[in-house]
Design a protein that fits this description.
7-stranded antiparallel sheet, 1 helix, single chain, alpha+beta
Length: 198
């Protein structure tokens, strides 16, 4: 009489253990791959947003003009380019040229008043419909960065850095440095040429 061929109990247990280990390793690898994909997508969104914000800042500051603009209250002295770190005032305020008006569909010029504001941890670009705005002048806000702890701003003129720029100055700064410090502690420092220099 011949013995029937087959697997012993020990061989079956070893095969099940190896299969279980491979399944656990495979599922762990799959979960980590999915998490990495989500992290890469999140980082790509952040980089895309920061790139768009940088382009907008670069374009605005490159088109900055020295045109003095009346404040909304109509009482204060007109200012051209002003800025500095303050919780009450915008980080930077100026009038820019080169605001496109395709087909001249809107009855307006190419000048636009722009301010960059730190508002509740967000860097906001505020643009008015007219350079000499009053309180009722419509404006548009665009959030450029979120989760900010602080924003530092400096101005370079004649080889020296200043922490503020008076709106009464007779010239534009040569460079503006913006330092964004995020809530996680990451820091992003950017330099922008001002007034047609870039």
């Amino acid at each position: 009489m011949s013995k029937s061929a087959g697997f012993s109990l020990i061989e079956m247990l070893v095969a099940l253990a190896v299969t279980s280990l491979l399944m656990v390793a495979g599922s762990t690898l799959l979960v980590q791959t999915l998490r990495s994909g989500q992290m890469v997508e999140t980082r790509a969104d952040i980089v895309r947003d920061q790139s768009a914000a940088h382009s907008l800042l670069r374009d605005d500051l490159a088109n900055a003009t020295l045109r003095r603009t009346r404040p909304a209250n109509g009482l204060d002295t007109p200012k051209a380019f002003s800025g500095g770190y303050s919780t009450l005032e915008p980080l930077i305020t100026f009038t820019r040229a080169g605001w496109l008006n395709p087909d001249e569909s809107d009855p307006r010029g190419d000048l636009q008043r722009v301010a960059y504001i730190l508002d509740d941890g967000k860097l906001v670009r505020r643009a008015w419909l007219r350079p000499d705005a009053v309180y009722a002048t419509p404006y548009s806000d665009r959030v450029l960065a979120e989760d900010l702890q602080t924003v530092g701003v400096r101005f370079l003129s004649k080889d020296s850095w200043r922490l503020d720029w008076s709106g009464q100055a007779d010239a534009l700064p040569e460079l503006v440095e913006l330092t964004l410090v995020f809530a996680e502690g990451d820091e992003l420092r950017q330099l922008f040429l001002v007034g047609g220099a870039g």
